[in-house]
Amino acid sequence: MQRRTVLKGAVLAGVGVLGAGFWALPTGLASAAVSIKGAQQVLAKLADRELVSLKGWSPAEVFNHCAQSIEYSISGYPELKPGWFRSSVGPLAFSVFAARGAMRHPLSEAIPGAAALASPASQAQALQRLQQAFADFAAYQGELQPHFAYGALNHADY
After folding, report:
1. Cα 80 off chain centre by
2. Residue 35 three-state SS
3. Three-state SS for 12?
4. Could you tell me which of 112, 146, 132 has the C-alpha nearest to residue 39?
5. Less Cβ crowding at N or C end of the chain, within 10 Å?
């Protein structure tokens, strides 16, 4: 009987955490409204602007981080969370982000095992790297590598 009580408590706690996560995330565009082409258009508008970061990573580091994530979806992430995580907690977290239309995380959380975000150092070169990563992803026809936390995702999910 105690086991059933513990399981009920775990399920209720999980639902509570997911509900709180869903509520806490800011609303964003519906995932259907987000596209690679749209992202590339936004990036093109940033090309000639001097961007400033108020905290966390520099704009070049943000662009490099985004490019890394896209590149690793094709080549494979350097480190993966344990299999149990990628088949339980990871997909639940992804479903919350997908339902909200956006994923957010602190700009101090690098991809586990990834190279430093310092290269390329200039904003223009990092932006160009990100634009190339989007183009490579759009052209890629093969099977994508599992996300380090969320597990298996398809092109639309990424």
Report:
1. 14
2. coil
3. helix
4. 132
5. N
